[in-house]
Amino acid sequence: MPILTLKTILKHQNPCRVIGSRFKTSSVQYVASRFRDPTFEKLMDKYKNLLKVIAIQDLILANPTHNPPSVSLDFLSRLSQKLHLNRGAASFLRKYPHIFHIFYDPNKFRTFCRLTDAAMRVSRQEAEAINASLDAVVDRLVRLLSMSTTKSLPLRAVFKVWRELGLPDDFEDSIISRNSHIFKLVDAHEPNTHILTLTDEMRDKSFVACVENWRVMECCRENCAVDRTEIRYSFKHSYPPGMRLVRDFKAKVKEWQRLPYVGPYEEMGEKKRSKAGIMGLEKRAVAIVHEFLSLTVERMVEVEKISHFRKSFAIDLNIRDLFLDHPGLFYLSTKGKRHTVFLREGYERGCLINPNPVYNARRKLLDLVVLGRHAMLINNESRSVENCQTQKPCLQDGGRDESI
């Protein structure tokens, strides 16, 4: 197969590599040449500020000595660079009067910041939603551990994605310690490092991957014309409007869809060095990250965070390049000085297709972020998720499905 240059990629405005081939491009060039999806880009424009708001909110709620919880403006100013508050803490806080309230404490001769009543209400709703779904949280964590080749993960890796998985902030006590028949913590060889592992009775538990449920649903649809042999190893693909799909790329994707592979919860077995074996390993890696994203509350995660699981999941490929190689499954955004990957099939017009209570609460906080300085009241706090699914889309430019 000929090696294509970056010039050829940009000429055809098709950043995706033909599956199984490699271009003479650096990783930075490959990211820069990808096709931009305007829907996800608009969503990340909002999320990049939401992440800063969440970081400050966590600092405020972690200081229970004050009633109500608050932090000094001096403290936040010292963390401005770490929190990426380019114009300083005070300027950032004033942009969101519906979330933060700045006040002066005459007893301490200092200026403090606390959450507004609306922001506190959203925070409580999220905590209540998490506490009401602890059974689902346990199942999520068991599935994550089951994808590991050793049925165990470094605890520090789990800490990286606790919010994405919808875990309570005290999950070591509320989830791990209270379910000692499922989880156990063991000391690692490194100092001050713990390994979270499944108990012996849980190691043989079998799971059905999310993509397998989709295949069954596709085959059971009325007037289904899908060839079962075609869909047996397939994944759902969709592409943004305006993205040109050349004939060779379509053919390669169709060929890739037919490739057999080992599922995310199955034993990998011996690695084969043949071309078919290497492509099978790549498809298994796609299956693992697809299932990982399906386990997250918002069907999205930072690439840097998921990279901490590469060794445990036996993924020998560059995770970021894997997302770029499969633009019909994943979308990679670079907004906010971070690389964030979305599971395409989970979203429609910038909103989650099947929302959950935790997502709904977080979306309300996003509403407050988008509101900014506008002096309007939110008459119906749950409007964002309902609008996504009914009449009023959150974002323009919806994606299109294209079966290959």
TrEMBL record:
<dbReference type="InterPro" id="IPR045040">
    <property type="entry name" value="PORR_fam"/>
</dbReference>
<protein>
    <recommendedName>
        <fullName>PORR domain-containing protein</fullName>
    </recommendedName>
</protein>
<feature type="domain" description="PORR">
    <location>
        <begin position="36"/>
        <end position="373"/>
    </location>
</feature>
<dbReference type="GO" id="GO:0003723">
    <property type="term" value="F:RNA binding"/>
</dbReference>
<dbReference type="InterPro" id="IPR021099">
    <property type="entry name" value="PORR_domain"/>
</dbReference>
<dbReference type="Pfam" id="PF11955">
    <property type="entry name" value="PORR"/>
</dbReference>
